[in-house]
Design brief:
single chain; mainly alpha; Helix Hairpins; 78% helix; 0% strand; extended
Length: 113
């Protein structure tokens, strides 16, 4: 049976853990809006190919940094490979439909060296 002191301790601990996980988010709402405005044309244009590629690139950069520190995190590695494949397919679609936009996006995101 939990006493009042132990119960408040557990509640405080749960609040701290959930607040820490919220801070670990890679893309904040402001950053997403900024990416959509820069690459999609407006903050509400979330479906444009350029905006989706920019979002995937941000996530890939963050996960790559994590993988350099944690080399044996195989689950994250698999997720990273899936994200890279998804970005690759979106880039190939963009190159087929809008070659000039594809070239601009490569320069702005610094994807090819």
């Amino acid at each position: 049976m939990l006493t009042n002191g132990k119960l408040s301790y557990l509640c405080t601990r749960i609040k701290k853990e959930t607040s820490n996980t919220l801070k670990m988010s890679v893309l904040t709402t402001e950053r997403k809006k900024e990416l959509f405005k820069t690459h999609g044309g407006s903050e509400t244009n979330t479906g444009s190919t350029e905006a989706q590629i920019a979002m995937l690139t941000e996530r890939i950069k963050h996960i790559s940094g994590h993988m350099q520190k944690n080399k044996k995190d195989f689950g994250t590695n698999r997720g990273l490979i899936k994200l890279v494949g998804e970005r690759k397919s979106l880039l190939s679609y963009l190159s087929k439909t809008d070659l000039e936009g594809y070239r601009k996006l490569l320069v702005t995101l610094n994807l090819r060296k």
